[in-house]
Amino acid sequence: LGSADRVAPYIGFGVNAASYKNDYLFDFDGDDDEESRIDQGMATQIGIEAGLRGFLADRGHSLAAPYIRFSFSKYIGIIDEYVDGEDGVDYYGDVLCAGNSADTCGEDYEKFDEAILSPQGFKFAFGAEYYFNDNFAIGADLLGLELFWSAGTNPQDQQRLATYVSVAFYSTLNISYVTT
Hints:
This protein is mainly β. It is built from two helices and six strands, in the order E-E-E-H-H-E-E-E. The radius of gyration is 22 Å and the shape is elongated.
């Protein structure tokens, strides 16, 4: 590693646990008296990140190298649709949409939740890495900004797209293994 190695592409993987909660209004009997149903649960998000780090100084054995990071991430939300402790009870079809005559009610709400829990976005950060040797480093994104968004067709209004945006500052610790 040295002055010629100032740009480093990388790929990262991530797994998150996420919770969600939506409050829907249903009119099952057609009397314009809507009932509230809460849709809540946990999901697993599996993601991949691809990016570049541009180092502002030489990197190598016993050197601390500052960098600027830019990356794109995509997560896929996976929901366990079955009710804990109740074998075979489908939350979306048997609980949330109980009494609704639409055949696809449960499927529509599950697809919406999974779409909203599957964001994509960008990260931009300033950080540094310390190299113990030419291949192994520990570093940190000292100050980062992330922008994520997701969208899904609202199951109660098929003409409307529900969009969620998240902007956050973050810091992380990183372990890097560099192949030469």
